[in-house]
Amino acid sequence: MSLNYLLVFVPIAILLDQVGEKLGIGPVVIFFCSAIALIPLASLTEKATDALASYLGATWGGLLSASLGNAPEIIIGFFALKQGLVEVVKASITGSIIGNLLFGLGVSMFAGGVKNGVQKFNKVIAGMNAGLLTLAATGLIIPAVFHYSSAAVTNEISREIAVVLFIIYLASLAYTFITNRRLIDAEAIREQIEKTPEPPGGESGWSRKKALVILTIVTITLAYLSEILTSAIEPASKSLHFTAQFSGVFLLALVGNVAQVFNSISFARSDKMDLSLGVTVGSSIQVALVVAPVLVFCGFLMGHPMNLLFSRFEVIGVALAVFLIRQLISDGTSNWLEGLMLMAVYFMLAFAFYHLPGHPAQAAHVMVH
Questions:
Q1: Phi, psi of 63 (to 5 degrees)
Q2: What is the rounded CA–CA span in Å between residue 331 and residue 88?
Q3: Which CATH number does the domain housing residue 268 bear?
Q4: What is residue 283's predicted lDDT score, i.e. its pLDDT?
Q5: Is the dihedral of CA 271, 274, 275, 278 positive or negative?
Q6: Which end of the chain is least crowded, N or C, by CB within 10 Å?
Q7: What is the pLDDT of residues 276-335, one digit of tens each?
Q8: How far is residue 207 from each of residues 60, 69, 169, measured CA to CA in Å?
Q9: What is the pTM (predicted TM-score) of this model?
Q10: Residues 246, 301: Cα–Cα separation, whole Å
């Protein structure tokens, strides 16, 4: 599904950032315009990367796609850290994992199941991804367990765990593209499912030069809009009476993942659940093994130290999401009811995050009573 029509919001967001205050336009409008503008840019980044990957062959192409797959999240997180929004960035990490696993995969299973009935996927690949997902979630949970056990936490332990997570990511790439390439290789999966070769440049048919030009322009625009977005998120959240945690988990996290969700739905409706799982579960793994460590390192270098200490409820949310996914994909099949159940859990968590103690509306309610 093409999202290019949303590119009209790019100049709108830039214009509002320049003259919005003079026109009396509040930060809420600026935030949502810039958020919508980032959606097609994230989609174009993915298409350009896939086009370049098709010229490099299965191994190096897969490595490029895996390395740049979460570039929008890293760019957005970088500018949020630059604004000093450490708690929002941390919440966006857990929000990306929860959103991809529960909402992204849930809506994909639902859409694919309604159209195709019971769908099958590779149990071996799903099992390896489930193992990586569990390890990644463990790395994000350990700092919280350490803190609540010893009543202390240091940025050092977060950086040490970030290093371990990134090493595991590099090891998973080596396993995927070298040790067991034929089993896990994305091109092999595509050939198995589609039984038809894909033209150079992927589905877009872009040349190498065109893909490079588009990727460069989109990355620069993405960085500029990310700065606008992160500058507006704090005043917008206050206007909407959202906490920093809710804004990170359910606003900022969704911005960089919408394009992936659309792709996942498209794959599921085409009865390609292996690819749908690769987009959603694979993205969650990369958020934990790549995005989180990179942002920890960036925060350290920028003078805005970020640790991996998440709130109790964020830890519970991630643990629930990982547990449910492991249970549902273990049999190698999916259906629309399982998708509906995942979406239901996502919305229940959303309601719970909104009503967490410390929310402005909740604080006012407590003062009245």
A1: -65, -40
A2: 36
A3: 1.20.1420.30
A4: 84
A5: positive
A6: C
A7: 888 888 888 888 888 999 999 998 888 888 888 888 888 899 999 999 998 888 888 999
A8: 17, 20, 30
A9: 0.81
A10: 26
